[in-house]
Design a protein that fits this description.
alpha+beta, Glutaredoxin, 13 helices, extended
Length: about 475
């Protein structure tokens, strides 16, 4: 019996040792695997996942990229850390290295002159680099309506954009027309251009009749006075010769923009006098009938907005009418008002939103896409104010997204690098006091009593069987 007991004990010990060895080996193997293969992102906003845009950029890498994580010991942000693990697991060309500012106090000075906070990043490839501040990863926006703040996470967008920037020295260059009282590009739109790695330069046609050869697209934003006939001819020749032009020009309080609008005439597009007013409440932002919410046509520019149910808001717009096209170019209306819309020739001097004698019946196009056989393309939005940060906020960012989609099409980028930020705001479940009391009774009282009663019944039955 002693020998049998010893053999049984030895066998049990051997089996236990083998099982432990297998568990240790499996644990070591799993820990060596990339986090993307061992962890599943169940967060509501997919904080730890990357989009197809990121994968296409990372998979195309042929050069080594180093991401420096500037952070003190034990101050690492878990979300950023897991996201960096994802990038490292996607490509052998990406390496993440920590730089503790206590150990390397002057490291960040070669990349930025500003204050560097914990969990900031530097993306570097060769002699090109980009600094990503912590404040560029966690974005805080103030709501002008609810007087509250919303926080979003833009780690993926910032990192992927930086990787594309440092690995591709030949980034697109767009020029903005100057010399006619054009307004500065709104901050949100300018930030989107920077995130897309698009370089912006100024161009005046008053002292030159040539458009630079490196221009990917020429932007005209909110001119307050008209161009000359010579400038009009230069722009028309530029588009006809294969150039790309994005115009955002609407009604002005001065004499108007006849030379600007004459760029549209060869394609059968004319601008109605005055400002468009909507009578259909479903097509404007209450209570302002001149803040229009037009219908979006099916196109590459509008498809992402249609899929996600966004609306573009176009305020103080001129009505465009698409008529007979005498050229071989194709004309597409991207944004269209309702049948109940009309244009008031009085413009900024209108005294009422009610329809009066002399008003021009709609519907109108508020944005058109003109594609020439030569490869030239012109996208025109008939409002100078729709990119303002206020109206962009009204549209939940749809106005800037629409413009960036249009610009991406014009410069020939079928896949934009724009990656939406991920909201960190929590949606709380609100319940009444009566429901709360009922849940407490069920969770604290009834369920434990049910388990206790089941246990008592099982014990009593077993004792009866043993007797």
């Amino acid at each position: 019996m002693k020998k049998n007991a010893m053999r049984g004990g030895a066998y049990s010990a051997a089996v236990t040792a083998v099982v432990l060895a297998i568990l240790i080996a499996v644990n070591v193997f799993v820990s060596a695997m990339p986090s993307g293969a061992t962890e599943y992102d169940i967060s509501a906003s997919k904080l730890y996942s990357v989009t197809s845009n990121t994968k296409s950029v990372v998979n195309a890498l042929t050069e080594d990229v180093t991401i420096y994580w500037i952070v003190q010991a034990d101050e690492e942000d878990d979300v950023i850390g897991k996201l960096l693990d994802r990038y490292e697991s996607l490509s052998d060309h990406i390496t993440v290295e920590k730089r503790n500012p206590d150990v390397y106090p002057t490291f960040a000075e070669q990349y930025t002159d500003g204050t560097v906070y914990n969990n900031s990043l530097v993306v570097e490839c060769g002699d090109r680099s980009r600094y990503i501040g912590y404040e560029d990863i966690y974005l805080t926006d103030a709501s002008m309506y609810s007087y509250s703040y919303s926080t979003s996470f833009d780690g993926e967008g910032a990192i992927t954009s930086a990787i594309d920037y440092v690995t591709n020295p030949d980034q697109p260059v767009v020029y903005t027309l100057t010399g006619h009282g054009e307004e500065d590009l709104p901050a949100t739109f300018a930030d989107s251009l920077e995130k897309e790695n698009i370089t912006v330069e100024d161009l005046s046609l008053l002292n030159t009749a040539e458009i630079p050869e490196d221009v990917a697209c020429l932007i005209v934003y909110a001119p307050q006075s008209d161009i000359s006939e010579a400038e009009r001819d230069t722009l028309a020749s530029y588009v006809a010769g294969g150039g790309r032009l994005l115009v955002m020009a609407g009604p002005v309080e001065a004499a108007g923009l006849p030379n600007f609008y004459s760029l549209l005439k060869p394609y059968g597009v004319t601008a109605a006098e005055g400002i468009v007013v909507e009578e259909d409440q479903a097509h404007y932002v209450y209570p302002s009938p001149v803040a229009l919410m037009p219908d979006l046509a099916e196109s590459d520019v509008t498809a992402p907005l249609l899929e996600e149910g966004y609306y573009v808001i176009v305020p103080l717009a001129a009505g465009l009418t698409v008529g007979e096209n005498t050229t071989s170019a194709s004309v597409t209306s991207l944004l269209t008002t309702s049948e109940a819309s009309f244009s008031k020739p009085a413009g900024y001097d209108m005294a009422t939103y009610e329809k009066e004698d002399g008003d021009i019946d709609g519907p109108f196009a508020l944005a058109v896409d003109i594609a020439c056989d030569s490869g030239g393309e012109l996208i025109w939005v008939s409002s100078s104010a729709y990119l303002d940060d206020m109206y962009n906020a009204y549209s939940s960012g749809a106005n800037v997204n629409f413009t960036m989609n249009a610009l991406s099409q014009l410069i020939g980028e079928s896949e934009t690098l724009s990656i939406r930020t991920k909201s960190l705001n929590y949606n709380y479940l609100t319940i009444s006091d009566s429901v709360s009391g009922l849940l407490q009774v069920v969770m604290i009282g009834l369920i434990p009593l049910a388990f206790l009663g089941t246990g008592i019944i099982l014990v009593v039955r077993r004792r009866r069987l043993l007797k």
